[in-house]
Amino acid sequence: MNIVMVGTGYVGLISGLCFAEFGFKVTFVDKDNNRIKKLNQGLMPIYEPGLDELFAKHQKNTKQIKLSNDITKSLSNADAVFITVGTPSRRIDDDADLTSVYAVAEEISHNIKKYCLVVIKSTVPVGTSRKIKEIIQKKVNNSMFDVASNPEFLREGSAINDFMRPDRVIIGIESDKGEKILKSLYRPLYILETPIVITNLETAELIKYASNSFLATKISFINEVADLCEKVGANIQDVSKGMGLDKRINSKFLHAGPGFGGSCFPKDVKAFSNTAKKNNIKLSIVDSVNEFNKQRPKILAKKIEKFFSNNVNNLKFALLGLSFKPNTDDIRDSTSIIIGNELLQSGAKIIAYDPKAMKNSQYENPKFKYGSDVYDTCNNVDAIIIGTEWNEFRALDLKKLKTLVNKTIIFDLRNLYNQDELKNLGWEHISIGR
Ligand code: UDX
């Protein structure tokens, strides 16, 4: 089977390469010539564990993949085309910006010459897949195409494994022919007994938003409980553990911290609420999650300032971790960076370090200074802030660090360290919900 992925961002690249790994021929299409040129040289636009290797394998060894900026040529032989372009938040109203998705649908409609299944993998509000169907219907006979919604559930940092071993595959499809194609594409997962949920277009779209919003709700819930823990002398990690052992609750996504960031949760929670509003439904829980999470990094920055009697002017902070989570170089809606910028605005100096996200952050945050490694970053600082839970921050040489810093203060926003241990080593340790 021949597959075309339109859009070589995070979702397109990972999904396409995983389909190549399953044995299908995959053509990646992107209108950005520069991106295609770089990909041809094996230069990936993002950092994701295992991505370089998987790309090299299928470009050089199996020759299962092709790269192109010519959608017409690529579609001529395609059995299925996946739309995997971005749907960022619109600045004006926080709605998902569907400009790219609709533009690709238009292009596809001009280029279908034989039957082709059009699969929407980009995260799109409910109703979008049906609109895409209408766009294509204007140019193409119904017998020549079907439209499916097949949302992705890939976590950055573990996306390849998430694709190869998913908890479930969601397929919104309303034709037998289309269903058969998608089932064959995911057939390699049958051996893992992966549940495949077949439903209509709207339901598939909604499952994606409801899932992400539910996980975001779990995070905000535990963060609010963490605030209460601090007031009453309880320990949030034990609370999470105690709750998570109940199989109905489950321990995942109950880690308290500076709030959720990244390319998905913040934008999806907002878009979900907007979709509901347009349908005269108020998702009050989702709205609260959105508002609480927006404030959370700012409140934590205030907490840090309060520790210094509300005067951080000229104080030097080492900011460890800039990506929104470990194992990615993605800094979109990174809570660590929001906190750094809040402190900067209050007159503090920020010296930052991240194992993979330095380049992205240097470009967007030129007012931060940057260290070459953890120890260089912590030289002469008045406090260390751990913003992202990278593995290399989990076992810092605290004795060595003590000789480098001005003051032995750690704001451990990811609860990486044991409080007593740090106290015994002479550090003041401020964590979350403990
Ligand atoms: C998420 C979804 O998990 C994935 O299914 C979807 O397709 C895309 O969005 P991702 O954004 O890559 O994936 O990361 P995820 O691991 O879900 O974390 C999102 C944010 O929540 C991060 O900022 C993370 O630090 C935060 N988080 C996560 C917590 O604060 N506590 C937790 O317990 C879990």
Structural commentary:
This protein has 434 residues and is α/β, with parallel strands linked by helices. The protein has 2 domains: 197 residues, Rossmann fold (3-Layer(aba) Sandwich), CATH 3.40.50; 235 residues, 3-Layer(aba) Sandwich (Rossmann fold). Helix content is 44%, strand content 14%. The strands form 2 sheets. The chain has an 8-stranded mixed β-sheet with strand order 3-2-1-4-5-6-7-8, sandwiched between helices. A 6-stranded parallel β-sheet has the order 11-10-9-12-13-14. It is globular. The mean pLDDT is 97. It binds uridine-5'-diphosphate-xylopyranose. Uridine-5'-diphosphate-xylopyranose binds next to α9.
- β-strand percent reads 5-15%
Approximate helicity band: 40-55%
Radius of gyration: 23 Å
Hetero compounds: uridine-5'-diphosphate-xylopyranose
Low-confidence stretches: none
Report the average pLDDT across residues: 97
Class inferred from helices and paired strands:
alpha/beta
Oligomeric status: single chain
Give the CATH superfamily of the largest domain.
NAD(P)-binding Rossmann-like Domain
Q: Based on the structure given, which CATH architecture of the largest domain is correct?
A: 3-Layer(aba) Sandwich
**CATH-assigned fold name of the largest domain:** Rossmann fold
Helical run tally? 17
Number of domains: 2
Number of strands: 14
* Main sheet record: 8 strands, mixed
Q: Identify the overall geometry.
A: globular
> What is the CATH class name of the largest domain?
Alpha Beta
The separation of the N and C termini measures 54 Å
* Strand order in space, largest sheet: 3-2-1-4-5-6-7-8
